[in-house]
Amino acid sequence: MENELDKLSRMTPPNASDAARTRAMSLAMQAFDEQKEFSGAPQGSEKADRQSSITTRIWSAIMNKRLLAGSALATLLVVPAAGYLTIGMLRDRTIGLTDVPVLVEKEKEKAEDARLIRERDQKAGETDIAAGKPVDKRPVTTSEVKPEPKPADVDEAAKADQSLAGAPTATETETAPIVDGLVQESGRLNESSSLADTAARPMTVQPTGVLRNKMIAGEIQNESIIAQPPVLLPEESGDRFTSKDINPVKSVITDPVSTFSIDVDTASYAYARQSIMNGRLPEADSVRVEEMINYFPYDWKPPESADQAFKANITVMPTPWNANTQLMHIGIKGYEIQQQEQRPANLVFLIDVSGSMDEPNRLPLLKSAFRLLVNKLKPTDTVSIVVYAGNSGVVLEPTKVSDKAKILAAIDNLTPGGSTAGAEGIEAAYRLAERAFVKDGVNRIFLATDGDFNVGPSSDDDLKTMIESKRKTGIFLSVLGFGTGNYNDALMQTLAQNGNGVAAYIDTLAEAQKTLVQEATASLFPIAKDVKIQVEFNPDKIAEYRLIGYETRALKREDFNNDKIDAGEIGSGHRVTAIYEITPKGSPAVLNDDLRYADKTKQDAAAVDTKNAPGDELAFVKIRYKKPSEDKSNLITMPVNAADAKARVDDASPDVRFSVAVAAFGQKLKHEGQVSDYSWDNILKLGTDAKGSDPYGYRAEFLKMVELSKSLKGE
To answer: pLDDT tens, 34-50?
Structure first.
């Protein structure tokens, strides 16, 4: 007998199989069900009552028997005891708001540990001692794993677990759509539900780990815990951006003319904000300084009538980050159409419902954003909805906004799933836009996506060509971006620019409110298209210049007078700002040496003839634009005089100074050398002093971003 025991002690115990674990769990659950009424004495105690701490037992005896009630001794003993018990209860608390992400992580760690153990068990040993069979060393694939048949009582226990945890059953999840991140109680959303109702619902998470076990044992009530989902911040986001070299400093002698297309997009600012608020600085390629400047509303003087599409406001002032240069600031304000002048709108919502959109800040936020836009439209406007994933499909035929409930119900019932066939969806959207086309009205497609056009019959160039051709028919395309991780900013910029539309990034419901409600007339109703700016600098006054931003909007000099060249669009009331840093002639900040053959270069390059220019002109600004229904451009010109230059930075208007602070911030994020010595604190002071009126809090939010950026840089 002793020899047998010695042999057993030297043997390696067999590894438990998944089937053995399943059988053990089944028996344990069955035993638990039989003992759940706690009949007889609990384990570990000779008495037939529950275990409790000594402090709990003393407190119970005092309160139940009323030994000290009404006496002075009660005050001396009960009050300190209550404090001690309170500390103990807090120490033994079940869970708090901050515990939720920790529990989630622990559950993930447990699952990972179990997976590693299974892999180790499969590789360990040459034979299965219990079964006497060779071990199969092949890696187990998902298709090979077949769960053991469960006894009826195990199935019932599993269903009870789901019920206790508040999770829907498999049948329920097949019919209950996810709307705004919450599982609905029925398979159909109530059509009378409103955005306010959705916003009022708290985001909840179901308890896991220790807390869930206590629920199953009946020790605590089944209550969901209000919490925000944890924010994941990968080191590399996977988002894609266009890489462009920053505009160089140019010599007026050799290159006196600067030409570019205007830009009213704001996506870059919103993307930078969500990055900074989530604890990381944005990628340099994601920063387009002109979009950051143009994000804010400025009080530029508007044109006096609709006959003049817009008016240019020009200011020359000292450069805050370089005492030896100046800034030439151009602020354009478009004519603002009154509500009675607004033309009817035919809108198509082209919505990405692919699997990548299944995140709280993607499809749920997208649906809330479009609800806001629908509520802004007039009853006579028309809305259609096309979705695309593995295939595209029409969710809503052209419908008048007077039937708002039908439109909102179609939006609410959208659910994610499948791959992304973006090109096919765009084609379907254009077909609907053509079917409901409004002559002399607004015909626009709103493409809402995370930018992941990874499947489809067409290449990016084919998409661009199609959008250009449809633009000529009067159907424009705007793009709304959502989410991070596979955000294709480069493609979205291309689509919006070639579709005569705007590109915006929606990271919060407040941003959706700004873009689609507060600035709805600017986004929907164009007053000018193919808007180009050309600035000619006087070499007698200016030695060098550089355009801040607009790298993706640069045009050739000859493109300015060519009406076949596409350019930007200005909507009703739009504000556009452009800033040049200019170096006066003779300034120590001049970077380029004088040319040895300057006179010959002037003649050969056909440089600017200044004989007819007034002596105090610094530059001459020209703007070309077309009215939305016309193909021939109009010209606006304006000289920039040295006499109008401000002597000090503080002499410029608050709006001008604030936009310059934003320009400095954008250049700082983009690592531009011109502002390397201009500190975050200087930017903060410039912006704070020029904050002015801030009804929506945009400027206060910007100042907070500057502070956070300084901290993230460790400066």
So the answer is: 554 444 444 444 444 44
